[in-house]
Design a protein that fits this description.
The complex is a heterodimer of chains A (about 110) and B (about 110). In chain A, strands 2, 4, 5, 6, 9, 10 and 11 form a seven-stranded mixed beta sheet that branches. In chain A, strands 1-3-8-7 form a four-stranded antiparallel beta sheet, with no helix packed on it. Chain A contains no helices and eleven strands. Chain A is mostly beta strands. Chain B has about 110 residues and is mainly beta. In chain B, strands 2, 4, 5, 9, 10 and 11 form a six-stranded mixed beta sheet that branches. Chain B has a five-stranded antiparallel beta sheet with strand order 1-3-8-7-6, with no helix packed on it. Chain B is globular. The chains are: A mainly beta (about 110), B mainly beta (about 110). The interface between A and B is medium-sized, with 23 and 22 residues.
């Protein structure tokens, strides 16, 4: 069965360190998204991609970067982790029409 | 701009109906969605409605759309303890979804 997997599921890191969260999907979806979920804010869009080598900034992109070298993967990198980036991160993907998003199980990141 | 708002908490008795409400701002949204998130899990699509529809029913779920007021609701009939979760309303912006903050539904005996 097709799926979307995130790793690691839990990570604790220190302020200033670089962190990469992986997202891998086998749906062959063109569109991929990264959201963060915080209490009281719901899901906020960080970055998204409509295909290989395409990346776009979402509403909360500062301090994050993504790259899309193939269809299956969209890793999210925190260049220098900050305590404000403690959150649960969700990756999602959709077909080109973008009508339905399929979500991963989430990665909980704690920055000390 | 695009914005989706929903109340943060709803408590219901087991067996009663639950109604979760949502308002959105983008009148050009073509699809509106309800997602469910159980503890420690990702979001799962519950149902969605196309903007030219007023109502959609799927077993215990009824979605009502009032385009004039930009109001979307999700009714869960005969609410069970397994329905306890966070429910997210979302509207489709330009090729991406805009989510509300989520409504936490608590079902008590």
């Amino acid at each position: 069965d097709a799926e979307i997997t995130q790793s690691p599921r839990h990570k604790i890191t220190e302020t200033g360190r670089q962190v990469t969260l992986a997202c891998h999907q086998t749906w062959n979806h063109n569109n991929m998204f990264w959201y963060r979920q915080d209490l009281g804010h719901g899901l906020r869009l960080i970055h998204y991609s409509y295909g290989v080598h395409d990346t776009n900034k979402g509403e909360v992109s500062d301090g994050y970067s993504v790259s899309r070298s193939n269809t299956e993967d969209l890793p999210l990198t925190l260049e220098s982790a900050a305590s404000s980036q403690t959150s649960v991160y969700f990756c999602a993907s959709s077909e080109s029409t973008g009508n339905v998003l399929t979500f991963g199980a989430g990665s909980r990141l704690t920055v000390l | 701009g695009e914005d989706v708002e929903q109340s943060l908490f709803l408590s219901v008795r087991e067996g009663d109906s639950s109604v979760i409400n949502c308002t959105y701002t983008d009148s050009s949204s073509t699809y509106l969605y309800w997602y469910k998130q159980e503890p420690g899990a990702g979001l799962q699509l519950l149902t969605y409605i196309f903007s030219n529809m007023d109502m959609k029913q799927d077993q215990r779920l009824t979605v009502l759309l009032n385009k004039k007021d930009k109001h979307l609701s999700l009714r869960i009939a005969d609410t069970q303890t397994g329905d306890s979760a966070i429910y997210f309303c979302a509207e489709r912006g330009y090729n991406k979804l805009i989510f509300g903050a989520g409504t936490r539904l608590a079902v008590h005996p």
